[in-house]
Specification:
- One of its GO terms (molecular function) is phosphoglycerate dehydrogenase activity.
- InterPro entries: ACT-like_dom_sf (IPR045865), ACT_dom (IPR002912), Ado_hCys_hydrolase_NAD-bd (IPR015878), ASB_dom_sf (IPR029009), D-isomer_2_OHA_DH_cat_dom (IPR006139), D-isomer_DH_CS (IPR029753), D-isomer_DH_CS1 (IPR029752), D-isomer_DH_NAD-bd (IPR006140).
- Keywords: Amino-acid biosynthesis, Chloroplast, NAD, Oxidoreductase, Plastid, Serine biosynthesis, Transit peptide.
- Belongs to the D-isomer specific 2-hydroxyacid dehydrogenase family.
- By secondary structure, the chain is an alpha/beta fold.
- The chain has a 7-stranded mixed sheet, covered by helices on one side.
- Strand 18 and strand 19 (515-520) form a beta hairpin.
- 1,4-dihydronicotinamide adenine dinucleotide (NAI) binds next to helix 6 and helix 8.
């Protein structure tokens, strides 16, 4: 699942121009604290902000709230050019440092290619970035930022508006009265109270819709493979499987992003599994529904009604059977269109764009980070160590204990200002989060992701005497207030503790709990606690050998001879369940754990 440590953090494809402007001045997020155990005179900062010769130019290609425009104008030349054709956009873009769009502009590869390297940031004044080619942006060293929170309530309110309008035929009845008719029998609706609403995608918008639907007396269930069950439980919503959600719901409301996995997630096959007479609401993205299949399901009576704000092609063709269907209520992608939300997203995106142009990292950045090559070159082995320690530590946590508080200690002979730990912290965060979620963490979004998940990471430096040639002596990761799958990983002070060093360019695990070990963090690891007695290494070694599992490294740490010992074994292959069971069955082994790093 998780990409290797050298993936997105180490190999951004960035042109020199964007590196110099974006790599400096990266502020610490408020969810982190740093403690220095010993003070030293600060050395000169490593990075300086690169000043711009002239004001940058920001192209605003879709209508943006005034407050956002004002923020932009304080810092840049702002060109508001709406309704540009793709060709006009490509022509203009070579003169722009930033581009701001909503959902109506396709920022495809051609746009980045046409920019000739000048475009440094694309700001999406909203959530969905499916209209921006992120891969192309990253390849061209262009940061993409969005405004992920300011339109949440507006979208949720629109979802509820569609739900209630559909149930009571408001749009159809309104048109009928205006056409001079009075059809009270034709527009008998359905009640919402007691009905089951399935919220598909329990993120920001989905959970707000759920909260509001509960207020309407609906029974709300949700499907979201990545949402934490406790967040759903907290508002009285049960997380269920996709099939259960669609089979039991009277109303289905879609709130997931458009991705290759969610594309046409409602299709002939899934409509066939729904309750007859189900009603569908979509304020997410048109592409999550196979629109032809929806028309068939409406005609077959499987779907009684649909209320749609978004379409596969926007605007949809006038003669679209779906749009014209009398049991379908439509709006022209209005989910985010309230005065309040538009002012909010305008400010959110303008701040992020200005920050990026000044060389700051935006918390709402959605693509690859910009990291100076010389910093990465020096930190590279420690970056790998940092991610592996994070991965190891989180896998030592027993199921059910939520990870909330992590302390990272860096021991170094460098003065604090001469050691930038943001990359290391991002990698530890990546290591901590990726094994237990589907979130993709990189330098840009690590702090933001940790904060969103309620994960607090505090940093501490131990300043060592000695040569500051190497940036770091060791890194320690401690997770507080959790149980461990491997009790020996708990230190005297009660936290899961792992410590590692870089030896000959290779990351090594050098401490687990109170036990000193020494095993390279290259393949996978078996940690065993046993009674310290002769023959143990041989016994475990021969169980692994019988199964052709190659041992790369082995080390034993103990309190005192013939007392307790912890054995750390590096293995090249993943041992089978049977082999692991055989290790567990060795009488002197008191506990063991297998961990993929
Ligand atoms: N109509 C409009 O004007 C607006 C539309 N939107 C759209 O609403 C959607 C949700 O936005 P937010 O809640 O802000 O995003 P979010 O990222 O907070 O929530 C999306 C949720 O979908 C879940 N998800 C991902 N894959 C899934 C799958 N296969 N099945 C079920 N759940 C899955 C994620 O885990 C996440 O919890 C996006 O598509 C966004 O573009 C958002 C604002 C306005
Ligand atoms: O934020 C989103 O994802 C939206 O769909 C809103 O789109 P808009 O900015 O109104 O074009």
């Amino acid at each position: 699942m998780a990409a290797s440590a050298s993936s997105n953090l180490l190999t951004p494809s960035v042109n020199k121009q964007s590196l110099s402007s974006l790599s400096s001045k990266l502020p610490l997020s408020s969810c982190f604290s740093v403690t220095l155990r010993r003070r030293r005179t600060a050395a000169a900062p490593r990075f300086v902000v690169v000043s711009m010769d002239a004001k940058p130019t920001v192209l605003v290609a879709e209508k943006l709230g005034e407050a956002g425009l004002d923020l932009l104008k304080d810092f840049a030349n702002v060109d508001c050019s709406y309704n540009l054709s793709p060709e006009e956009l490509c022509t203009k873009i070579s003169l722009c440092d930033a581009l701001i769009v909503r959902s109506g502009t396709k920022v495809n590869r051609e746009v980045f290619e046409s920019s000739g390297g000048r475009l440094k940031v694309v700001g999406r004044a909203g959530v969905g970035i499916d209209n921006v080619d992120l891969a192309a942006a990253t390849e061209h060293g262009c940061l993409v930022v969005n405004a992920p929170t300011a339109n949440t309530v507006a979208a949720a309110e629109h979802g509820i508006a569609l739900l209630t309008a559909m149930a009571r035929n408001i749009a159809q009845a309104d048109a009928s009265v205006k056409a001079g008719k009075w059809q009270r029998n034709k527009y008998v609706g359905v009640s919402l109270v007691g009905k089951t609403l399935a919220v598909m995608g329990f993120g920001k918008v989905g959970s707000e819709v759920a909260r509001r639907a509960k207020g309407l007396g609906m029974h709300v269930i949700a499907h979201d493979p990545y949402a934490p069950a406790d967040r759903a439980r907290a508002i009285g919503v049960e997380l269920v499987s996709f099939d259960e959600a669609i089979a039991t719901a009277d109303f289905i409301s879609l709130h997931m992003p458009l991705t290759p996995t969610t594309s046409k997630i409602l299709n002939d096959e899934t409509f066939a599994k729904m309750k007859k007479g189900v009603r569908i609401i979509n304020v997410a993205r048109g592409g999550v529904i196979d629109e032809e299949a929806l028309v068939k399901a409406l005609d077959a009576g499987i779907v009684a009604q649909a209320a749609l704000d978004v379409f596969t092609v926007e605007p949809p063709p006038k003669d679209s059977k779906l749009i014209q269907h009398e049991r379908v209520t439509v709006t022209p992608h209005l989910g985010a269109s309230t005065m309040e939300a538009q002012e909010g997203v305008a400010i959110e995106v303008a701040e992020a764009v200005v920050g990026a142009l000044k060389g700051e990292l935006a918390a709402t950045a959605v693509n690859a980070p910009m990291v100076p090559a010389e910093v990465l070159a020096e930190l590279k082995p420690f970056v790998v160590l940092a991610e592996k320690l994070g991965r190891l530590a989180v896998q030592l946590v027993a199921g059910g204990s939520g990870v909330k508080s992590v302390k990272v200690t860096y021991a170094s002979a460098r003065a604090p200002d001469d050691l930038d730990t943001r990359v290391l912290r991002a990698m530890i965060t990546k290591g901590l989060i990726e094994p237990i979620s589907s979130v993709f963490v990189n330098l840009v979004n690590a702090d933001f992701t940790a904060k969103q998940r309620g994960l607090r990471i505090s940093e501490e430096r131990i300043i060592l005497d000695g040569s500051p040639e190497s940036p770091l002596e060791f890194i320690q990761v401690q997770i507080a207030n959790v149980e461990s799958r491997f009790a020996s990983a708990i230190s005297e002070s009660g936290e899961i503790k792992v410590e590692g060093r870089v030896k000959d360019g290779i990351p090594h695990l050098t401490r687990v709990g109170s036990f000193e070990v020494d095993v390279s963090l290259e393949g996978s690891i078996i940690l065993c606690r046993q009674v310290d007695q002769p023959g143990m290494i041989g016994k475990v070694g021969s169980v692994l050998g019988e199964e052709n599992v190659n041992i790369s490294f082995m080390s034993v740490g103990r309190f005192a001879p013939r007392n307790q010992a912890v054995m750390a074994i590096g293995v090249d292959e993943q041992p089978s369940k049977e082999v692991l069971k055989k290790i567990g069955d060795i009488p002197a082994i008191e506990e063991f754990v297998f961990i993929k790093v």
